[in-house]
Amino acid sequence: MRRIAVLKTFFIILFVVLSADIFYLQIIRGRKFLEQSENNRIRLVPEEASRGVIFDRNGIVLVDNKLVFDIVAIPQEILSLKNKDEIFYKLAKFLKLDAEILSETFKHNFQGSFFPVMLLSDVSKETAFLIEQERLQLPGILVKTRAVRHYKYGPAAAHILGYVGKIREEEYAALKNEGYSINDLKGRGGLEEVFDEQLRGKNGGMQIEVDSAGNIKGVFGYKCPQSGANLYTNIDINLQGFIYELVKDKKSAVGVMDADSGEILALVSTPAFDPNILIDKKKYVEIAEIFKNKDAPLLNRSLKTYPPGSIFKIVTAYSGLAENIINTESTFECPGEYKIGNYAKHCWLKRGHGALTIKNAIATSCNVFFYKLGLKIGEQNLYRYASLFGFGRKTQIELPEEEAGIVPDAKWKKANFNEKWFAGDTLNFAIGQGYLLISPLQALKMAALIANIGEDVLPHIVAQNQPKANNKRILSVFAVEVIREGMHRVVSAGYGTGHRAYVESIETCGKTGTAQVIRQRSHAWFVGYTKLGGKRICFVVFLENGGHGGEQAAQLMRQIIVYLHGQKGNFT
Questions:
Q1: Residue 93 is part of a domain; what is its CATH number?
Q2: Same domain as 243, residue 216
Q3: Are 353 and 368 in contact (CB under 8 A)?
Q4: Which of 34, 122, 206, 239 gives 20 to 30 Å between its CA and that of 483?
């Protein structure tokens, strides 16, 4: 009897334990297991959305999607064959490849019997047609089309447009919550990166039911992929291409902008790269060369910062006029050098310029004039007016990796070097040397401020991104008019430093700059604007280690001005 009682107790305990376990599995964890079961039963076969097309201001396609041909295997059909190796042998014969390589590729890329397996990507049209013709001999082998990004103008607009690349594993953790899958493409650099969400569209695909062996049992539904939105830019690709050809063998940044609207008509950075190479995995040698190139073709020099040299004298001149330190009749004597303590700072013209007014000081770019003026203005006022012109902060253009630059003052120097500010720092600041750093794009905005008689403007590339008209005048009309006259003499007067940009009967105002660099050739700058019909078109030419601004930079600007006036109808 005792044994029966023990057995009864054991079975009661066992029953309680089993009941509790069933309750836990079915009631407490039941929903989770149901979800897991559904996930095991239902699969999504994705279908990529095509990216939006990018156009120039005249409706010319800059970036579109071209069809490429891939050779894929359908696992269900391949695995159902008695001798699947025979199919790979036949296919290899047509393609003049090793059958073992195809077999190994099939195994490596296999994800399930319902997923097509990539065997060869981006084959020639002739190869695709050959495989299609031999389909009866190649069961389970298909030619599949796929859209691939195509940059129609190659390197000419590479830094504006960017390129696309597969999501990196380290990025995926952050991007998967934004709807990206591990195999998606993502914009890299340029408009492709900034407007990636709009351009990429929404992927679609089929929901299918599979059994435990991975065989398709049915289709639940199909979601059509939505193509990405198109992008319309303010770029004139013909102007962009013309400038690129002028500077493609140099380290440079050249920008052209409608001063009234802020529309960027061209923004060239060289050396450049061909985005079509970066998206073609088969061109790994060329890709490696781009990344290893010591001249940094991936760098967008339009957005990087450099010492501005004498183009900054526009700001110094404005500061002196706005603070009533000088007027149009004020003169400073230039004997060829300026002594400060036991140290002498030289003018670029060793014999000196003599007595100069502000207009001729701008025209001749006299260093001594601006040394003397800069000391009277003082470091704090120079800092304040440089900031007013937009230096030291980003322009907010729709491109990644824009640099803000540096506008130094005593506080900045103390914080960064733990040193006090000296009079020599002010002298350097006044002529655009020392710690001051600006980008070619910021210089372009400065040119627009002068062209607009002090009205602010926001540079922008994308037409849909047109900022609301600001038209806020932030500079004194009188001071700007004086500077404009000085800049007119830079180009039109025989003694002007930018006379090489002169074109008869075309009104152009400019300012040259030669920025000294330690142990390297100087950087060359030229900024200014020209009237084109009813518009004012401003420009910047920057040549890294390009020598004097009044030489090659001015000559390049002349060619661009002639082109602009010859193609007037495209911009007005």
A1: 3.90.1310.10
A2: no
A3: yes
A4: 239
The token pair at 360 is 């001729």
Rounded CA separation 334/309 (Å): 19
**pLDDT at residue 3 in the model:** 59
- Kindly state the tokens that stand for 352: 């000196």
Residue 455, C-beta contacts closer than 8 angstroms, at least 6 positions apart: 449, 470, 471, 472, 473, 474
Cβ pair 206, 47 in contact under 8 A: yes
| Residue bearing tokens 């040397």 | 433
CATH of residue 257's domain is 3.40.710.10
Confirm whether 13 is domain-assigned. no
DSSP 293-351: -TT-TT--TTTS-B--GGGGHHHHHHHHHHTTS--TT--EEE-SEEEETTEEEE-SSTT
Residues of the chain with pLDDT under 70: 1-47, 112-114, 205-223, 468-471, 568-572
Cα separation, 517 vs 306, whole angstroms = 9
Q: What is the pLDDT of residue 57?
A: 95
Give the separation between CA 480 and CA 540, rounded to whole angstroms: 18
**pLDDT for the residue 36:** 44
Query: What is the total count of domains within the chain?
Result: 2
- Rounded to the nearest angstrom, the gap between the alpha carbon of residue 216 and the centroid of all alpha carbons in its chain is 44
d(CA 25, CA 34): 11
Rounded to the nearest angstrom, the gap between the alpha carbon of residue 223 and the centroid of all alpha carbons in its chain is 33
Q: Which amino acid is at 115?
A: F
Q: State whether residue 65 is helix, strand or coil.
A: strand
Residue written as token pair 């590729």: 105
Q: Residue 183: inside a domain, yes or no? A: yes
Neighbours of 123 (CB within 10 A): 17
Round to whole Å and give the CA distance between 391 and 413.
Answer: 17
Tell me the two tokens of residue 262: 């802020």
Residues 228 and 250 reside in one and the same domain: no
pTM recorded for the entire structure: 0.85
Supply the pLDDT for residue 217. Answer: 59
pLDDT at res. 25: 47
- Structure-block tokens of residue 126: 């002739």
The long-range contacts involving 291-295, CB below 8 angstroms and separated by at least 24 positions, are 295/251, 295/271
Q: Say if residues 278 and 290 touch (Cβ distance below 8 Å).
A: yes
Structural domain that includes position 459: 237-270+303-570
Structure tokens, 451: 């062209």
Q: What pLDDT score was predicted for residue 37?
A: 46
Token pair recorded at residue 545 = 């280690």
